[in-house]
Write a structure and sequence with these properties.
By secondary structure, the chain is an alpha/beta fold. The chain has helices at residues 2-8, 29-43, 63-73, 85-88, 92-104, 121-154, 179-193, 199-209, 221-229, 254-268, 320-332, 338-385, 391-418, 421-434, 436-440, 445-455, 472-487, 514-518; strands at 10-16, 46-53, 79-81, 109-111, 166-169, 174-177, 236-239, 242-245, 285-286, 293-298, 301-306, 318-319, 460-462, 465-467, 532-536, 544-548, 557-563, 566-572, 578-579. The chain has 4 domains: 2-142, 3-Layer(aba) Sandwich (Rossmann fold); 166-268, Hect, E3 ligase catalytic domain fold, CATH 3.90.1750.20; 321-500, no CATH class; 514-579, no CATH class. The protein is built from 18 helices and 19 strands. It is extended.
Length: 580
């Protein structure tokens, strides 16, 4: 009787294969179709229509499955034949739709060769469990895959199909460079970094050389734009907005990649063809009213004038070439001669070496102290474990040692960062100041303007004259240049220049002669504290003063004074007290 009813009922056959599981699928669609047709013949099922689909069921939205459900809702069939419930649904929405159709009587028969179903409360309960198990399998598989991907990223391994220019190495489970395509990709980066090739031209040239995509198709302009932005080519992995340090071999350098991004950013900026490319646009302000100085062209010459937007202004026009000539003269005023700059750089290099040696000795001493502290911590722990030290005493002593250890670690790590920075900046400044006159002799107004930005600020024009204050060390260079010119010196002694060192010690502990420090400006300032003053007083005679300088802190100054053929010896201790 049941077989007769099944013969009269129309049933849809549904077969599905997940596209994201091509290698793990147990039965292909062809195998499913064969097994289901054989099962239909055996059970005398009336197959009204067959639905075949290749799409994952972990998310709703399958077109063929939705067509089948819509046909059932129109009473075109009363049941479904599938291999297993997980072929019908692996998500809660599609599974719920099928159960609801069973509840409303639209579906009266569900047939599975590997699963039993009966339209009873027990059958619907078992069906819901089967759908739940299918969803659990997908969710658990997704989490396992995500965990594996995260671990690969932490190890610096690209977790997906290799991008263009790389191939997947199944044995090493990583990506390796595709030597044939990598040279074309590097060529594309090099061409674009020059700024002379648009993307369309690069596409035409590189495609003609033989670069094709994964499926042998020609690359589009958007493919090249994506490729030129991909950080994987210089060794980084960008995945879900987060960067990882990749272990694969880079095709290009980071410097080349950065230059490409800079060119791409400049090309993406909107252009304003209406504005003429004046050199000093928005650079100067009026020295009288403070408004911006604008530029306009009259009779083939560029003139700078005040915009006069705030108040009436009496300033007149100034020729652009005249302003450029003034700027050149101002730049010359901060130039340093090659002989002086080279001598100063040599002195700084020597001082840098001496400082590095002193700091290296201090750092080694700090490391030795760090080893001693770690040894003390180990001994302290042994005493506490042996019961020879109370817990409170152990905690207090350990706290002090840990703080001392942390201070030493920070000092050691700071040595490498700060030791040479001040010398590098000073040397770079001297080299640039030495090139100032060469900048002034150039015929490129843009480069002259850019160099002016380095040496000054708050640029103003008043009475057709440029004025501005010099920045920081450039003001010292200007003072030196003026001092050297006023003395008409062909060579200048760095050690005797009053503008590069302060006039006296910040905390002198003894008197000193006015010339003693001036001649020793480049010596450590602590030498001033070693100048001793000795006063000799004789009855009826005027007092005499002598200035002594011991070679070291622990040395003793000695002086022998001769008067009338009689010798008197005096000594001065490091405490600066005169001893007779």
């Amino acid at each position: 009787m049941d077989k007769i009813n099944l013969q009269t009922k129309k049933i849809f056959l549904y077969a599905r294969k997940s596209t994201d599981e091509p290698e793990r699928q147990v039965l292909s669609i062809e195998a499913q179709m064969f097994e289901l047709r054989e099962y239909a013949k055996k059970e005398n099922l009336n197959i009204a229509r067959e639905f075949v689909e290749s799409k994952t069921a972990k998310e709703p939205g399958r077109e063929i499955f939705n067509d089948m459900i819509a046909s059932i809702e129109k009473n075109e069939a009363e049941g479904i034949l599938a291999w297993h419930p997980d072929r019908l649904a692996r998500n809660s929405i599609d599974g719920g739709r099928i159960i609801y159709l069973v509840d409303t009587g639209k579906i009266t028969t569900l047939k599975f060769p590997t699963f039993w179903f009966d339209p009873t409360p027990q059958g619907k309960f078992m069906l819901s469990i089967a759908f739940g198990q299918s969803k659990y399998y997908v969710d658990n598989l997704s989490e396992n895959i995500k965990r594996g991907i995260r671990q690969k990223l932490r190890n610096g391994i690209w977790p997906a199909w290799a991008p263009l220019g790389y191939i997947n190495d199944k044995n090493a489970r990583c990506i390796v460079v595709d030597k044939e395509k990598a040279k074309y990709i590097k060529r594309a980066f090099e061409m674009y970094s020059t700024g002379e090739y648009p993307l369309a031209q690069i596409r035409k040239i590189i495609n003609s050389l033989g670069l094709v995509g994964k499926k042998g198709k020609m690359l589009s302009v958007s493919n090249y734009q994506y490729m030129l932005k991909n950080k994987i080519y210089y060794g980084m992995i960008e995945y879900n907005g987060e960067l990882y340090d990749g272990k694969h071999e880079p095709i290009i350098t980071k410097k080349l990649f950065d230059s490409v991004q800079e060119v791409m950013m400049n090309k993406s900026k909107p252009k304003s063809p209406k504005l003429k490319p004046y050199v000093y646009r928005g650079f100067f302000r009026c020295g009288e009213c403070g408004c911006f100085i604008t530029t306009e062209t009259q009779k083939g010459h560029n003139y700078l004038r005040c915009t006069k937007r705030k108040n009436p202004c009496s300033q007149r026009y100034a020729r652009e070439d005249a302003i450029t000539s003034q700027i050149k003269e101002e730049i010359k005023k901060v130039s340093l001669s090659s002989a002086w700059a080279n001598a100063s750089i040599s002195y700084l290099e020597k001082e840098k070496l001496d400082t590095a040696q002193a700091e290296s000795s201090f750092a080694q001493k700090a490391r030795n102290e760090l080893v001693e502290i770690e040894t003390k911590l180990d001994r302290l722990l042994d005493l506490q474990l042996d019961g020879n030290l109370l817990l409170t005493e152990y905690t207090a002593k350990k706290y002090k040692l840990i703080l001392a250890k942390k201070d030493l670690e920070e000092k050691i790590s700071a040595f490498g960062r700060k030791s040479n920075n001040r010398f590098e900046l000073a040397i770079a400044f001297l080299k640039e100041a030495n090139q100032a006159e060469k900048y002034a002799q150039q015929e490129n107004p843009e480069r002259i303007r850019d160099f002016l930005k380095k040496i000054g600020s708050n640029f103003r024009i008043a009475e057709r004259t440029v004025s501005f204050p010099l920045k920081n060390a450039w003001s010292l260079a200007g003072k030196y240049h003026a001092e050297a010119r006023s003395a008409e010196a062909t060579s200048y002694d760095f050690a005797k220049s009053a503008i590069w060192r302060r006039e006296r010690d910040s905390n002198p502990r003894g008197a000193y002669a006015p010339t003693a420090f001036r001649e020793r400006r480049l010596q450590p300032l602590g030498h001033l504290s070693l100048i001793c003053k000795l006063r000799l007083t004789r009855t009826g005679k005027a007092r005499s003063s002598f200035h002594l300088r011991p070679r070291t802190v622990s040395s003793v100054c000695k002086l022998t004074a001769f008067s009338g053929g009689r010798a008197t010896r005096f000594t001065c201790s490091p405490s600066h007290r005169a001893l007779a």
